[in-house]
Write a structure and sequence with these properties.
39% of the residues lie in helices and 14% in strands. It is α/β, with parallel strands linked by helices. The strands form two sheets. The chain has a seven-stranded parallel sheet. It has a two-stranded antiparallel ribbon with strand order 3-4. Bound molecules: NADP nicotinamide-adenine-dinucleotide phosphate. NADP nicotinamide-adenine-dinucleotide phosphate binds next to helix 9.
């Protein structure tokens, strides 16, 4: 949940605002923040209300410092059982809890048979460290291999109005096997929230600077798409981000939608999506805008 440039105080207030506005599912990961800043902020925000929220964590990706390198630190995928076990113990300590309600393998590690990673998550499930297990950023083939070794409750994937790769194989596989699908990037990292400006340049400290979708013609075309959605939001009387989140949540097979927020206002505004009802005219207008824009290349599952 926390992002670079967001203070601990703001991060905690943002999580609290989300909870106060009706959000019950908090998504974090061992690698959100180089030193577990996200997990620590969630611990502080949740306080004595631990049992009122679902805390979903992830293991299998960590930050590796490389002082001589450029950038000086990088994210490393490591799905070895001993590494996963150690990360989960550390996450539980940071969160101040004895179990994760949902624990994902953050991504398959190409250097480790996925059965080995799945086997460790199964052991963590059996030991009560997690109440349910998920897999993120995975192909249908890897979901099937994982599920053969460990009961699989959820799959977390990139999904939004324009990045819909999962509809080809992953989503049908999950529906057929009764696995919940949790969508991340519903707002395309803020682009679909409707507040970005034409010609906006992202600083090096903002990870969006490295994605082609935030540059040049691709960026401008998506801003045109966002403009096409504005009349829908105006007619429904909701902020644009609410309409985008509500549309995402009602797509067949999607079980939960994770939004990110960098301020308490964003968190409480976005929670308004829970009360945003789309009608047929809104769905038709959104569909027409999606078709006119065309898909945007998203992340390929591993
Ligand atoms: N499994 C995975 O590999 C994976 C990968 C990515 C994310 N996730 C999870 O999914 C969650 C959501 O993803 P995300 O945060 O990357 O993407 P997102 O929800 O599509 O975008 C969130 C960003 O949009 C901006 N925003 C949010 N609400 C806004 C509003 N009302 N008005 C204007 N701007 C708004 C904020 O950035 P600014 O204020 O900086 O513009 C915010 O950080 C994450 O928090 C994380 O838990 C999982």
């Amino acid at each position: 949940m926390t992002r670079e440039g967001v203070s601990r105080e703001v991060a905690v207030a943002t999580v609290r605002a989300a909870i106060d506005a009706g959000v019950t599912h908090l998504d974090t990961a061992y690698c959100y923040g180089e030193h577990g800043e996200s997990e620590q902020a969630i611990r502080e925000a949740v306080g004595g209300g631990r049992d009122a929220v679902v805390i979903a964590g992830k293991c299998g990706i960590h930050w590796k410092p490389d002082p001589a390198g450029s950038p000086p630190r990088r994210q490393v995928t490591d799905g070895r059982p001993e590494r996963l076990r150690a990360e989960v113990e550390e996450s539980l300590r940071r969160l101040g809890t004895d179990r994760l309600d949902l624990l994902y393998l953050h991504a398959p590690d190409p250097a480790v048979p996925i059965e080995d990673s799945a086997g460790e998550l199964r052991r963590l499930l059996d030991a009560g460290k997690a109440r349910a297990i998920g897999l993120s950023n995975a192909s249908a083939k890897n979901l099937a291999r994982f599920a053969a070794e460990c009961p699989l409750a959820a799959c977390q994937m990139q999904f939004n109005m324009l990045q819909r790769e999962i509809e080809a194989e992953v989503l049908p596989w999950c529906v057929a096997h009764g696995v919940a699908v949790v969508a991340y990037w519903p707002l395309m990292k803020g682009l679909l929230a409707g507040r970005m400006r034409r010609g906006q340049v992202f600083p090096m400290s903002d990870s969006r600077h490295k994605y082609p979708i935030f540059k040049g013609v691709e960026f401008e075309r998506t801003l045109d798409f966002v403009d096409a959605l504005r009349p829908v939001a105006e007619r429904l009387g909701h902020p644009l981000a609410n309409v985008v989140l509500a549309w995402t949540a009602e797509q067949p097979g999607i079980t939960s939608v994770l939004f990110g927020a960098t301020s308490p206002d964003q968190a409480s505004d976005n929670a308004g999506a829970l009360r945003c009802d789309l009608d047929a005219a809104a769905r038709d207008a959104i569909q027409a805008a999606i078709q006119a824009r065309g898909p945007v290349a998203g992340r390929q599952p591993a």
